[in-house]
Amino acid sequence: MMRTPSAWIGVSLVALMVVLAVIGPPIWGEAAERIDPGAVLQGASAAHPLGTDNLGRDLLARVLVAGRLSLALALLATLAGGLAGVVLGALPSVLPRRAARLVTATVNTLVAFPGLLLAMFIAVIAGLGARGAVLGIAAAVAPGVARLTQTLAASVAGRDYVAAARLLGVPRPLILVRHVLPNIAEPLILNLAQAMGGALLGLAGMSFLGLGVQPPAYDWGRLLFDGFSRIYVTPVVALGPAVAVALAGIGFNLLGDALARAAARTRAAGAAPAGAAPAPADPGEPDPDAVLEVRDLTVAFPGGLTPVRGVSLTLRPGEIVGLVGESGSGKSLTAAAIGGLVPYPGVVRAGALRLCGRDARTMPDRELGTALAMVFQDPMASLNPALRVGGQLAEVATVHLGASRAEAARRAVDRLGHVRIPDPERRARQHPHELSGGMRQRAVIAMGLMGTPRLIVADEPTTALDVTVQRQILTLLREVTAETGAATLFISHDIAVVGELCDRVVVMYAGRVVEELPVAELAGGAAHPYTRALVASVPGMDTDRSRPLAGIPGRPPAPGGIGPGCAFAPRCPVATSRCTAERPPLAPYAPEPGASTAHKVACWEAAA
Amino acid sequence: MAGMTRRRGAYALRRLVRFAVALGVLMVASFAMIHLIPGDPVRASLGPAAPYELVEARRAALGLDQPLPAQFLGYVGGVLTGEFGTSFLTGERVGDVIAARLPTTLTLALAATAVALLVAVPLGMWAGVRTENGRRRGTEAAFTSVTGTAVAVPEFLYSIALVAVFAIGLGWFPPAGRAGPESYVLPVVALAIGPAAMIARMCRVETLRVLGTEYVRLARAKRLPSARLYVRHVLPGTLTATLTVCGLLLTALIAGSVIVEYVFAWPGLGQRIVESITQKDYPVAQGVILVYGVIVLTVNLLIDLALGALDPTSRLKE
Lengths: 608, 318
Known about the structure:
heterodimer, A: 608 residues, alpha/beta, MetI-like fold, eight-stranded mixed sheet, B: 318 residues, mainly alpha, 12 helices, nucleotide-binding (chain A), transport (chain A)
């Protein structure tokens, strides 16, 4: 709780206030009451640093003494309000349904009322003075506490032990007292600590308006009331009580914040510098034939985590390449790195990251925004719910292509129709929530088609959709790739889908490419034990349903826990001691001379 | 689409019914206020030395000699026709007092709301963008502690400090009264600081939330210019929550205006209600409190309706 300086300040200020309340009156009480007709209404002087009042009493002493009454009244108001609030908040759980609803509705209306208005209302009835003000502030505190009690009680009511007690026929008031209240006491008390600050300021405000403490008694608010009437002549007399109120208010607020934070601590550990990654290899000459050329891509996070390590990819026009791997294999981060979307504090390093032969990292937004289309997993989430679908498409054209609004809107409708969204004019005017999931994913693809995409990066675009819609989206992706001549990088954990859609498959494991092969060889010719296990895990028509599904034993390693050897070695059925000691490089794989040269694998045992 | 409209209609209707019920309760409460005062309010107001005849005449003028149900009906009828009774002290019609002072109070409150929103929303968004994903922890710490402190300091301290520094010390602005645009500056600032700090905090948190969404990722993938990204794609998503707080803040701000009006001798309702309570001018206190209550309920109703209209995903829950 004492981790932050603000928590320290809060605790110190509140402690100071408490000490002041205890020692203030005995020490300065006499000085605060000493009337000096020779020194009335003075400003600051050596004898009276904050001046004197109309009877010549020392204002500094009075401020120090007034702390006790200010705090005591605030405490009283908080306790009274807290008690009333807990009762009001707990009532609905023991009252009959109709009465409970009435209480709840009353509390909800009262919560919306500003505390000061409630306090003034009560003060009119109870009369001017400390009693009225305390009752008023208590009335202002109560609704908030009641609402909190209700919410907390409702959350506890669903727990097993409460349900069990109810089943056993324990009467409801007893359940409330025995099971519910003890379990919500802690957050309630925390909240009261915060309410105390509010009550203190509220009482000061009431007294400042002349509606609170009346002479001869005085609290900080009353001193401020007296001081304020003289502010034009001697401003210093308002300073003491003002500073006291401000410090007390800030102190309780900071303390309340710190308590709340300590109660709900889910803080992550502080950031450490990004893990060192090996210097990327020489970028080499651009491949004139490649749409996307990634050389030695590494994504590192603070704390030595490197979820993507030395990935190289080349995509050619019209080609659909599947990037496969389990979650955590780094495939989505690879996609994010290509799109320049790796979240802070991730660090991207690459020997080369080229789009159509040019460095994607330095490409102007105008070109990248039209040449690269991205499609994400959840079509429910990837369109802005507040904006019309058509507008989200059209802005690509107005921003990057200099189209007029009308042109852009026309093109948006045209593109929506192109991805076979029925009635595109109407759909363009709708908000995303009015479209089905499949239609939304089509709209996202259409968005990518607003420009002239050279590369489409689709990150699990069908995972969130049901099977028939999945198929339609896959077909659409294939058509779009064919007609635009773009290359598509299709990221998926589903090797069956990849096998169906793609021309080439790149398999990633623990941040590295372990195998790269033409799709035709996937079913029978995969060389890496991991790829083979992935393929075997897909149930086919001829799978023996009486046997359990083939899985891969073990779990992928955490990004931090990878040894010097092959990351798959601990789960690999054919691993040798060499595999755990030395990492196999990604090398061309040709089981028999003359086979395709597109097959590469990173495995010591693959040659066998 | 039709179902949507119907659902929204039902939502608006429910809110209106709730508003009407709350109005009724408010009427009962403000009527009961005078009757809940222990002893005889007229005697309390006129003092123990007042002659018996005067007290009785006052009571009759207020209708206090009639049975309670008749009094309540008379009260409701009076309120509906703008007849709130007459001031014990000045003999003014309370309706006239309200008519004369309400606009002054509303101008102040609306100006403060506008200033708070204009400052706080960009500030909160800026802070959110700067501290996205936990970067710049220094900025984050500074932002939260400054706004946290600003929220904790009450309006009357801002008012006093502003008067002391800018009116008395530097003499830049008038210390009190309402005359000309420059007289608005200090009260509006005093009233706006707290809500602005609160909205800015809220707005930062919401901006952080929206920046983490998939749709902002996609908008970033489209390489939109920053201004367009933040204003068009991020801002709308932050508004729902910000608006919800605004409702609470607006009502708090109306209460805060009582204190600010008192400090700056601003000729609004707030100044008058304080006066009426300290001087036991019950008809004025009753009328003004009723007006404040109606304002609070109306603001909440408007915010609810605006939220219902703004939120196309129809997260309208009871």
